[in-house]
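Annex B. Sample input.
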Amino acid sequence: MLIDPTVVTEEMSLMPGTRCPVFESFFIADNEMVLNIIDSPGLFERGSKVKDIRDNMAIMATIEECINREITKLHIICFCMSFGDGIQQEDVESVKILVKYLGEGKQHRQSKSIHQPIEQNILLLGPSNSGKRTLMKVLEDPCYIPPYETVSSLQNKNPIKTTIKCRSSNLTLNIVKIPGAMVDEEQDLNQINEACRKCGITQFHHVCICVSFQRGIFDKDIQLFKRLIKHFGEEKIKSHLNLVVTRCELKDEKWQANIEKEVKNDYHMSFLMQWFNQQIHFTGALDPIYCNKGDEEVILDQFKTIYNNREQFIQFIEHNCNIQPFNIQLQINPSPISIFEKNRR
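Annex B, continued. Sample output.
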């Protein structure tokens, strides 16, 4: 009907009993408009207090397909009912469930114009096993499943640079991950500056210091944070610093709020939080153990938490896209001639 109001083809509607969504894109020449439409089967939302017939596997597969197609924002949601069938009580209940789930009057962030791309440089720091690499992968794909942890798992000792394009929001993230071995108390932190130079990025909009909820925060970690802040310059880096707590895939918003309050009130951490500009983010990844077991309920809960945390982080980056980056200071090695002149004096 959207293409030609006089013709209705079989491809334009879902056949009864179908369990898969249909993705279509239509170009309307008169308005020079492209419509991306997701036609979802009734099994997605139909249900009642007596019987719940939602197909969670189909929903999970559709969420993954939406992400692969980079459709994570909807401008209009149409709830369709047939005049011939009439409006049933379960239809009314389904509408209530959808409104409650989506949030009545919820304000969605507005994408920047396609002519105004946003590019942000992010530096990831933190001790070994603090979830830096997993954070990178989840920002790229929230469906990422990290490998099993083993005793023989080796830590990457080289910095990693990656570029993530979030085309749905015109956001490009250039991320540099510094290995934990490079920030140990025995290491010269100038190695970080040199590593950034080799990666081709010496200006950063955000610096994320990662800590693992599973690993915890030790006194030596707090000392490390202080060293890093002092190395880059307290006032210089303050507005760019963020604390990221990883391994939170099973922790809901209430738990996260309590942890944020606890960190800010902790005697040792409260001093550091003034330099983190009071910004704490949470992240996680799908647990390979539950994925291997096929525990659908736990996986869905994890994915919801992971996806929401990822969206909040990206939203934070977008809302602070006008921040001026700070420059990594590079050591300039004196030339042999200048050394000779100095010694001659």
